[in-house]
Design a protein that fits this description.
about 70 residues, mainly beta
Length: about 70
């Protein structure tokens, strides 16, 4: 699968707009894109077509779950 940064624009819910995204990664299969949404303290998973799959994270510091901030 191919991915273009232009595929990710301003999105409506379920996950809302990005706030200071700082990193993007593609999984080894090329099917999913992960965005470190630093300003929202979360990671967002999208298909390479830009369709929201899920997101996780929350403000704070802990062993698993919260981020301060993801990069």
């Amino acid at each position: 699968a191919s991915f273009s940064a232009s595929a990710i624009d301003v999105f409506a819910p379920p996950f809302g707009d990005f706030l200071d995204p700082r990193a993007v990664a593609v999984d080894p299969s090329g099917d999913y894109v992960y965005v470190a949404d630093t300003g929202d303290d979360r990671v967002v998973e999208l298909t390479t077509s830009g369709v929201w799959v899920r997101s996780w994270g929350a403000p704070g510091r802990a062993e698993a779950g919260p981020f301060s901030p993801p990069r």
